[in-house]
Write a structure and sequence with these properties.
single chain, 432 residues, alpha/beta, TIM Barrel, eight-stranded parallel β-barrel, 16 helices, Glyco_hydro_1
């Protein structure tokens, strides 16, 4: 699956007074018809996309589906496969932030309502980059609750991952053959000197927390103590272990940027390390831990003065994808994120300056960039080659245009029977 995405981040800053809405800032809410047409120009059939949560989820059982009806109706007509991104770094004002213990259940109800309104949608990322969302909101103090403590981080993390888990369960009730693509940042921390080894080891254990909880994987002893010391109750931890069967419906989406590897100093502070290991090595670490099919779900680089910097980065990422594949890891897709340039990511959305971040396949005037031309060529050359690794590794996708076909109906009925046989909240998978 060759994919791109529409940036739909919506965190708040300034104590919740300012909403950063990337769909608005990048013009997608006005130019979505043009944006969807660009997919055809590139030969892209898969789009990471979701409605703006804060403008769609108005209150308990209150929804404004007008924008979603229009945009998802157009995607269905175009036979584009959406990977639906339901929560991207923020929540509606009436929910507050990720410290709110009501968020998981509220979000699960919203996810089910979306699935019932758009039953032809099969692929979902319920909550985008769960680890980064908790880190930036409750450890770094940049977004949303703007807190900075271990307790705030663990509280945000357990609420975010619980929301994702409950959403998966509720969506499966509507679409039993749904597939969940976790878009999660893949990180690595390099010790700068021997005195930094302890800090780096702790950070390298902490980076797995969101996916450990999401997939019902037991955390290591150090992280268990960390979670318990930071406010997670034992029954909360076992909630995640008891739902490990959901992992069978998942593709592990790995996001990788040049900023994902870090140098750790003796005092525990970090700085950017660049791509020391690269996507191949770090993805192998995550795959060895979870043994799930993989998709490269995000990457980009700012176009620099030469004009070819982003295209060269795309080539390097694609080379890493091929290496992952050739090393026997089942990798099913690749994504350049996003379709158009973004705004204010030079400060990680901590400020609202209106500065364009030149990372798109197209600029904000919808003119193609060199990386867009290279991606179009790459897709054309590799589209029919990559799946040849094994027909058994192809994702069982039902195209939007085929949703009502008899074969698709039979597949959903079979998935429903399989789902009915899976352990439900009894901990059997966790204790085996």
């Amino acid at each position: 699956m060759f994919a791109t995405g529409i940036e739909n981040s919506i965190p708040t800053i300034d104590g919740g007074r300012t909403r950063i809405d990337q769909m608005e800032a990048c013009g997608h809410d006005r130019h979505w018809r043009t944006d969807f047409a660009l997919l055809g120009e590139l030969g892209i059939r898969v789009l990471r996309y979701g409605p703006p949560l804060h403008r769609t989820f108005l209150g308990p059982e209150r929804y404004d589906w007008s924008f979603a009806d229009a945009t998802f109706g157009a995607l269905r007509e175009l036979d584009v496969i959406p990977i639906v991104d339901l929560c991207h770094f923020g929540v509606p004002d009436w929910i507050g932030n990720f410290q709110n213990p009501d968020f998981p259940e509220l979000f699960a109800a919203y996810s089910e309502a979306f699935a019932r309104r758009f039953p032809w949608v099969q692929l979902y990322t319920p909550v985008n980059e769960m680890f980064i969302c908790a880190q930036f909101s409750a450890a770094y103090g940049w977004w949303n609750e703007q807190m900075s403590s271990d307790q705030a981080f663990v509280t945000a993390l357990k609420h975010i991952v619980k929301a994702n888990v409950l959403a998966m369960s509720r969506i499966l009730e509507v679409r039993p053959d749904a597939i969940f693509v976790q878009s999660e940042s893949t990180e690595y921390f390099h010790a700068e000197n021997p005195a930094a080894i302890g800090h780096a080891e702790q950070m390298n254990a902490r980076r797995f927390l969101s996916l450990d909880l999401n997939y019902g994987q037991r955390v290591d002893s150090q992280m268990y103590e960390y979670l318990m010391d930071s406010g997670m109750a034992r029954e909360e931890y076992h909630f995640f272990l008891d739902r490990s069967s959901l992992r069978h419906h998942c593709i592990m989406g790995n996001d990788y940027y040049v900023t994902n590897e870090h140098r750790v100093r003796a005092d525990g502070l970090t700085s950017a390390a660049g791509d020391v290991f690269g996507y191949d090595e770090i993805t192998r670490q995550y795959y060895d831990r979870y043994k799930l099919p993989v998709m490269h779900t995000e990457t980009n680089l700012v176009e620099g003065p030469n004009g070819d910097e982003a295209a060269n980065w795309l080539w390097k990422q694609w080379a890493n994808v091929l290496r992952v594949r050739n090393n026997g890891v089942p990798i099913v897709g690749f994504t350049w994120y996003s379709l158009t340039d973004q705004v204010d990511w030079d400060t990680a959305l901590r400020e609202q300056n209106g500065r364009v971040t030149k990372v798109g396949l197209y600029d904000l005037d919808r003119k193609i960039r060199p990386v867009g031309r290279f991606y179009k060529q790459l897709i054309s050359e590799w589209r029919d080659v990559l799946p040849a690794q094994s027909i058994c590794l192809q994702v069982p996708i039902v195209m939007p245009s085929e949703y009502d076909e008899p074969q698709a109906r039979r597949r959903r009925a079979h998935a429903q029977r399989v789902l009915a046989r899976e352990p439900q909240d009894d901990g059997q998978q966790a204790s085996s």
